[in-house]
Amino acid sequence: MPTQDVTAYLSELLESVRDLDRGAPHDLPVHAEADPDLLAVAIVDVDGQVWSAGDTEQLFPIQSMSKPAVYGQAIEDVGLAEVLRHVDVEPSGDAFNRISLDEESNRPDNPMINAGALVAHSLVRGPHADDRFERIRQLHSRMAGRDLAMDQDCYAQEMERGDRNLGIAHMVRALSVLPDDPHDVVDGYSRQCALEVSTVELARIGATLATGGLVPGSDERALHLKATQQVLSVMLTCGMYDSAGDWVSTVGIPAKSGISGGIFGAVPGRCGIATYSPRLDGHGTSVRGELAFRQLSADLGLHVLRPRQPQG
Ligand code: GLU
To answer: The domain 5-300 belongs to what CATH superfamily?
Structure first.
């Protein structure tokens, strides 16, 4: 499709979901106070070309959408086998902040729920908590194409309400392996979640995963191919909170949502996609974002498991 056609298509797509006002923003003040009508969509292809519509300059905390890249960084730092020793790759069907570990192995089910994400964060090479966060910030900055900063209010509010994540971190430390102090891990993880991105930057992070780890349109490598493949696999099976199965069958794009109202996906070899709309459904996924993704996937034939007739 020519560029103007794609842009017009994206504007129409937003109009088709704009009036849907089901759901509510997350109650963390920084999200609850955001304008619930904000709406944006962006596509970045593997060459770095950008198409977007709506409030694409609006910044918002990346929240759980930081989990995929941090998992990738942990794999690069300590190796996949070591990461798997600490965190499994099984969809849990549980809410993202469930305080639970696998009964037999004592491992978190996957790195997209908080227990697994806290462990993945702690496996990123430091040596100290500050160095670990700085490496995570730099990784996201490379993928997003801008030097990202943290939303201080979001970080402070997350820490104020950090009891649940602290509880999870202490449980992991008690029953399994958490290579660092639970307070430091929750502090670093909360900073990771508070990194601010725009919808276009989020789509660019998706596009970097879609290329196998190369920053779109450049030779700069953010993650290695093998780590990226592992990240995409886990996004496909576990990325959408406790509605991952529904997402795979209706959208079919490896993706991750966050409580700020963002969703980003990666179509391998093709593009990164992101949406932003703060009202969430009962699973914590953006209502209008999910609908836009469904529509996009159907209209542009992006379902990664789309059967193809053998040629000839
Ligand atoms: N910082 C949030 C938490 O850990 C992230 C949740 C999310 O976006 O899913 O509770």
So the answer is: DD-peptidase/beta-lactamase superfamily (3.40.710.10)
pLDDT (tens digit, 0 to 9) for every residue of the chain, 312 residues total? Answer: 566 799 999 999 999 999 999 999 999 999 999 999 999 999 999 999 999 999 999 999 999 999 999 999 999 999 999 999 999 999 887 777 777 788 888 899 999 999 999 999 999 998 889 999 999 999 999 999 999 999 999 999 999 999 999 999 999 998 877 888 999 999 999 999 999 999 999 999 999 999 999 999 999 999 999 999 999 999 999 988 778 889 999 999 999 999 999 999 999 999 999 999 999 999 899 999 999 999 999 999 999 999 888 876
Using a 6 Å cutoff on CB, does residue 63 contact ligand 1? yes
**Nearest CA, atom 4, ligand 1:** 114
Domains of the chain: which residue ranges?
5-300
Tokens of 60: 């918002």
Place of tokens 């037999």: 104
Rounded Cα distance between 102 and 90, Å, is: 10
Whether residue 127 is preceded by a cis peptide bond, meaning omega within 30 degrees of 0, is: yes
Q: Give the Å distances, CA to CA, from 156 to 50, 76, 151, 246.
A: 33, 30, 9, 34
Known binding positions for substrate:
64, 114, 158, 165, 189, 241
